[in-house]
Amino acid sequence: MAKAIERRGGANPWRIAGWSLAATLLLLPLVAMHFTAEVNWTPFDFAFAAAMIGAVGIAFEVTVRATRNTAYRGALAIALAAAFLLLWINGAVGIIGDEDNPLNLLYVGVIAIAFGGMAWARFRAKGAARAMTVAAIANALVGVVAAAAGRNEPPGIVGLVALNGFFVLLFLGAAWLFGIAAASGGRSDDSHPNTDPR
After folding, report:
1. Residue pair 136/128 in contact by the 8 Å Cβ criterion
2. Rounded distance, CA 12 to CA 190, Å?
3. For the range 186-191, what are the long-range contacts, defined as Cβ-Cβ under 8 Å and sequence gap of 24 or more?
4. Dist. CA 53–CA 46, nearest whole Å
5. Is 35 helix (H, G, I), strand (E, B) or coil?
6. Which among 42, 18, 17, 12 has a CA at the least distance from the CA of 29?
7. CB 11, CB 20: distance < 8 Å
8. Phi/psi of residue 92, nearest 5 degrees
C-alpha cells in the first residue's frame, strides 16, 4: 500500500512517520525544559542531537532506496538504533559511571566494529551478519569491563548487565536478520544494489 501511494506521487506514510518521530525526539527536551530544571539543553546539545538523528535517518533512507529486501532493511534499522542509543545514553549520562568516564569510549569501538565491518564486507548481507556478531561479542566484553568498573555506581552490576545485554541482543538480532537476507540470495538487488547478497 505504501509503495502504491509513493508510485502515484504521494508521500510514503512510513517515511513521514519516521521523520515525524525524529522531530518529536528533538521537541521533547525543548518542552521538558519548560517544566523541569533537570533538563537544560544548550544550542550545541540540540545541534548534536539533530546531527545524530539526521545521520541515522539519512542512512536508513539510503538503504530503503538501495534494496527491497525487508530483512536487510530491518537488520540495518536495528543496527542503527543500537548505535544511536549507545551514543545517546553515553552522551547524556554515561553507561560506565557518568558521561565523562573515558571507559565509555569503549562503546564507540563497538559501533566502529559493527559499521566498519559492514563497510569492509562492502555491505553484503553475509559479511554484515559477521560484523554484527563480532560487535555483539565486543559489547559483551565491554559489559564485563562496565560491571567491574561501575559496580559501586548507579545503575549497579545488575543494571549494567541488563543494559549491556540489551545491546548485545540488538546486535545479535541485526546479525540474524542479515543472515536471513543473505540466505534469501539470488538477485543482487534483494540485499544490496550492486553486490551479491551472499
Report:
1. no
2. 20
3. 189/67, 189/68, 190/67, 190/68, 190/69, 190/72, 191/67, 191/69, 191/72, 191/124, 191/125
4. 10
5. coil
6. 42
7. no
8. -85, -55
CA atoms within 13 A on the CB side of 91: 14
Q: Are the C-beta atoms of 134 and 180 separated by less than 8 Å?
A: no
Give the cell for residue 45: 546539545
pLDDT, tens digit, 9 for 90 and up, residues 103-137: 889 999 999 999 999 999 999 999 999 999 999 99
Q: Are 83 and 139 in contact (CB under 8 A)?
A: no
Whole-Å CA distances, 140 to 18, 87, 147, 169:
30, 17, 10, 10
Verdict on whether the full-model pTM lies above 0.90? no
